[in-house]
Write a structure and sequence with these properties.
373 residues; 8-stranded antiparallel β-sheet; 6 helices; 27 strands
């Protein structure tokens, strides 16, 4: 088995799918790429059993064949080579691999392709088409709020709800929640499923920045994403997602409107002086003035800043984890943000002051108990 390919083209394809590989001591085959050649088409696969990525490219090859190649050494070698044709020769009996590039020759051992896990195939699926920029925006807006708690597997992914006139993405870790909805996407068959965090992170880094159409196919066990020459397949999280609508407060008479960037930068400064465990900041709102403060009693650190704002409601004080607020404000695009609140012990809602067309985003953050200053 022999083929020739450009080092830069091959490296780009390998790097685009390498995140799906696994450093597994139980199944060492998962540390490999599967190379398959048929009709001058090289198909490369990587998987960790839960998430798989496949890419393909045209090459020069006179033989067909399959072999698993170690991913780490292959990528590290290609990184050091200039852009030039590189020839791969594989002994199908011993699985010895020889790489020839310019005046250099490099040898490594392959693995039996039959030992590589089978990539799930499309079967009994429903389909929805999404613009790559919309999917990327949805991932950016929700991924940061996904839980890392292994005891709550349902919350370790993003809930996707397809309806007749909308698509909704939801993530939460019980301290913060994001609901991102698009009304320009429709589905004939209303359904919902939970996409795992790793697959979404891989999608985020792989999606093109243009308006490429991404085909999303799904069944009861897997979701299949296809764009360009990239395929990503992931196993869905088979859990019941919590009733997130029940925790969103519906009556919020206190509405604070403030410049998003000013508020964000103020929080980044003030949190430096906050307790390193709670990251607590205090918001004291009175009329058109927002007083932001934090303290760390253990080190006698303290910070106070004032901002102009617009406020509807009764004067109030409320505490939040500044790290959560910073994450949320960083993932909103509007020039001004509205924080809707009811009482100091109930969740606050962050929404853009100006909504984009076909887009509706709501972020919820739980309060923290105020310490007396």
């Amino acid at each position: 088995m022999r083929f020739i390919v450009s080092t830069s083209i091959l490296l780009k394809q390998l790097q685009s799918i390498s995140g799906a590989s696994s450093s597994s001591t139980v199944l060492p085959i998962l540390e490999n790429f599967l190379f398959e050649i048929k009709d001058n088409l090289l198909t490369i696969s990587a998987t960790d059993l839960q998430t798989s990525m496949v890419t393909s490219l045209q090459i020069e090859a006179k033989e067909e064949g399959r072999v698993a190649m170690p991913s780490k050494i292959l990528i590290e070698t290609l990184k050091t080579l200039p852009d030039q044709p590189v020839a791969f020769s594989v002994d199908t009996n011993t699985l010895a691999i020889e790489i020839s590039a310019g005046d250099g020759k490099y040898k490594l051992s392959g693995e039996n392709a039959d030992d590589f896990p089978k990539i799930p195939v499309v079967d009994n699926v429903s389909t929805v088409a999404l613009n790559a920029s919309i999917l990327s925006e949805a991932i950016n807006k929700t991924l940061f709020a996904v839980s890392s708690d292994e005891l709550r597997p349902a919350m370790s992914g993003v809930l996707v709800q397809l309806a007749e006139q909308s698509i909704t993405f939801v993530s939460t870790d019980a301290h913060k929640l994001v609901r991102y909805r698009r009304t320009d996407i429709s589905s004939e068959k209303p359904t919902s499923f939970i996409l795992p965090k790793k697959a979404l992170a891989l999608l985020k880094s792989s999606l093109p920045s243009d308006d490429t159409i991404v085909s999303v196919e799904y069944n009861n066990t897997n979701a299949f994403f296809q764009f360009g020459n990239i395929h990503l397949i992931c196993r869905l999280i088979d859990e019941r997602y919590p009733d997130y609508e029940a925790v969103i407060p519906q009556v919020n008479p206190n509405k604070l409107t403030v410049d998003r960037l000013l508020f964000l930068n103020t929080l980044r400064r003030v949190v430096i002086f906050a307790n390193k465990t709670t990251h607590q900041v205090r918001l004291k709102i009175s009329g058109s003035e927002l007083h932001i403060s934090a303290e760390d009693l253990d080190f006698s650190n303290e910070a106070h800043e004032r901002l102009n704002c617009q406020f509807e409601g009764e004067d109030m004080e409320i505490g939040f984890n500044a790290k959560f607020l910073v994450e949320m404000l960083s993932n909103l695009n509007s020039s001004e943000v509205v924080i809707e609140m009811s009482t100091p012990n109930r969740a606050g809602l962050l929404i853009p002051a100006m909504k984009e067309d076909n887009e509706d985003i709501l972020m919820l953050v739980m309060p923290v108990m105020l310490n007396n200053i």
